[in-house]
Design goal:
Layout (H helix, E strand, L loop, with lengths): L2 H5 E3 L17 H4 L7 E8 L6 H20 L7 E8 L4 H14 L3 E3 L4 H14 L2 E4 L13 E3 L4 H14 L5 E7 L3 H16 L3 E8 L8 H9 L4 E4 L3 H13 L5 E4 L21 E3 L9 H14 L5 H20 L7 H12 L2 E5 L2 E6 L5 E2 L4 E5 L2 E4 L1
Parallel strand pairs: 2-3, 2-4, 4-5, 5-6, 7-8, 7-9, 9-10, 10-11
Antiparallel strand pairs: 1-12, 11-15, 12-13, 13-14, 15-16
Helix pairs in contact: 3-11, 4-5, 6-7, 11-12
């Protein structure tokens, strides 16, 4: 497929200056290249079983689709890609184990991890090994705290700030309640920045109700407090599983505010046993909608559905973009698979700040040395069981 050759535009640079400063103190195996290497070995980590399996499966499939396309089109710099994905069940210890499994396999670059808390753990390892890491979807600030790590998605602070700004700019509500997971890095990071920005924008937080991983099935107390507070809108910086329960329990309690969420909401219409009509009118941030009419999105959706028998969510699109970003950066830096992991990492750090990409999840995307992407957010609303861009 040629569409990404047309879609990706490389920023001009007079020369590539490869930084000699390592991303960390690499091990001996990381520093020594393989002169016989004829393929790029790229690993992926995320949950393909457990509560967040819909995210990890989407990422695994999105990477696979891109790898197949790139290989069919001649590979990267003439070299084919080998790809292996490991399940971490969104667990930090399992994620580190998965990382070590991939290292033993010969991984040279990592796309992952999918969720924030495991990513924070794994980036400690990739930094120590001086390995390039590119997460499609881990939003916690610490997920990319080192200079070897970049992300495709927005960070938690960005999501919180953008959500508050959107609500204020569009006059969606004045009185806002928040229900968040105080035991989750993703949720608390978004909540804190949302609350700060909401206050700055003159919005009134009338209730801020927490739950934890040990109490995420019964939300009657949080819902009643939000209802009693007179909230016109409830902000949900949480994942779709808990959100589906909250919407169902709020309906039974006769509470019908406006609902506004973040990218973890993607997937709510696929929850088994959930009445999708309860999500009607739900708004949330997402960088991708499968019913967008541009050619690149429609081609991706058609190919994904043919390959995997399912409609892709944003996590698949983020992961797909990740692979084409890696391709662009590797070509920009003229990286070859016989280079050491350390040299690949250093070259990628520089190249990532020199490319400009038109992707499924944003146009004219660039990256800073802090690993954060620069792109415009999109807000969608669920209407008639589908996402519609606002």
């Amino acid at each position: 497929m040629k569409m990404w050759k047309k879609a990706a535009s490389l920023a001009l640079a007079s020369a590539l200056v490869v930084s000699l400063a390592a991303c960390g103190s690499g091990s001996g195996s990381s520093d020594s290249g393989d002169s016989d290497a004829t393929t790029f070995k790229i690993g992926g980590i995320g949950p393909t079983t457990g509560d967040n399996a819909i995210y990890g499966t989407a990422v695994e499939n999105g990477i696979q689709l891109a790898v197949d396309e790139i290989n069919a089109d001649g590979g990267i710099n003439g070299y084919q890609i080998e790809y292996q994905f490991e399940d971490d069940q969104s667990d930090s210890e399992k994620s580190v184990n998965a990382y070590n499994t991939l290292k033993d396999w010969g991984m040279q670059m990592l796309v992952g991890t999918v969720t924030s808390t495991p990513c924070v753990a794994v980036v400690e390892e990739s930094h120590a090994d001086n390995m390039f890491q590119f997460t499609p979807s881990a939003t916690a600030v610490d997920s990319i705290q080192y200079d070897n790590a970049f992300r495709m998605c927005f960070s938690d602070p960005s999501q919180g700030t953008v959500s508050a700004d959107y609500i204020a700019d569009n006059g969606l509500a004045q009185k806002i309640a928040i229900i968040y997971n105080s035991s989750d890095t993703y949720s608390t990071g978004i909540y804190q920045n949302f609350a700060t920005e909401a206050e700055a924008r003159g919005l009134e937080i009338v209730a801020a109700e927490a739950f934890t991983a040990d109490s995420k099935t019964d939300f009657s107390v949080q819902i009643q407090k939000a209802k009693d507070s007179g909230a016109e809108l409830v902000f949900l910086p949480i994942y779709y599983q808990e959100a589906s329960l909250i919407l169902a329990q709020a309906d039974r309690a006769g509470f019908a505010p406006k609902w506004f969420g973040v990218d973890g909401m993607d997937g709510i219409l696929n929850v088994e046993g959930f009445d999708g009509s309860l999500a009607e009118g739900l708004m949330f941030l997402t960088p991708f909608t499968p019913n967008a009419e541009d050619e690149a999105t429609q081609t991706f959706v058609a190919n994904y559905e043919e390959a995997f028998g399912d409609t892709p969510i944003q996590f698949a699109a983020d992961a797909y973009d990740c692979m084409y970003v890696i391709k662009a950066a590797v070509e920009q830096a003229d990286i070859t698979p016989d280079m050491s992991i350390s040299d690949i990492c250093d070259a990628m750090k520089t190249a990532m700040t020199e490319i400009t990409i038109d992707g499924l999840t944003g146009k004219q995307i660039t990256w800073g040395e802090d690993g954060e992407p620069s792109k415009e957010p999109t807000v969608v609303v669920i209407e008639n069981g589908e996402y519609s861009v606002l």
